[in-house]
Amino acid sequence: MTGAPARPARPVTPTTILAELLDDLVTRAGPGADADLVRARDLAAGLDPYLDEHTSPASSALVELEARTRSAAWTGTLEQEMLSGHVEGRFLALLVGMTGARRVLEVGMFTGYSALAMAEALPEDGELVACELDADVAAFARDCFAASPAGRRIRVEVGPAADALERLRGTAFDLVFVDADKAGYAGYLDTVLDGGLLAPGGVVCVDNTLMQGLPWTGDRTANGDAIAAFNRRITDDPRVEQVLVPLRDGLTLIRRSA
């Protein structure tokens, strides 16, 4: 990974994809674009910037981590759009504080934005264990963590997430954040629920559960199909109760049924 000028993130959430589609329609319509179409475009395009403006600011360490991630030259399946970002990071940090979490597990770390955001909200003796498959990405994240006092609360497990979860069986976490390979989501959740990884009253957060709108628009991709199947499975699972929050690319909050 080498530094490069940061490029704008491409649209990868239902809202940003919708905004781009509407902007294309307005552009094609030209000066005679229907006023309602222009208003629809402006509603969609302005939502994320408005959320960002009215969410508590990120720490300087998180701002720097985001800048480094966006300027890195990613290859293969890695891309800057995998970054959780400001609003989702603050949401997760607020959730840590509201639940009084002391131990957090993250399944799928990438460059560590969400990990550091949650670690900053942990108490001094709190711990976050983050699982990351790619050793180079894990090293990138560790280097970013070193810029923050909260970085010492993060322990990174490098390698397949399923292997890390097996090693952690019996270690209870108050909050679990899942943001790894989409086909593995169901298995990860089963291990968390059945392997003693979720503390009593604990919460599981699963990212990308709207997956660019693919689960309901009918477009077929491997990730879209995996998320659609996962969402249906959770909906039908009597062990849990859940709510799908339309934050960024979708975030499902799950806890054991009472």
TrEMBL record:
Keywords: Methyltransferase, S-adenosyl-L-methionine, Transferase. GO terms for molecular function: caffeoyl-CoA O-methyltransferase activity. GO terms for biological process: methylation. It comes from the Bacteria. Its EC number is 2.1.1.104. Signal peptide: none annotated. It comes from Pseudonocardia alni (Amycolata alni). CDD domains: AdoMet_MTases. This is Caffeoyl-CoA O-methyltransferase.
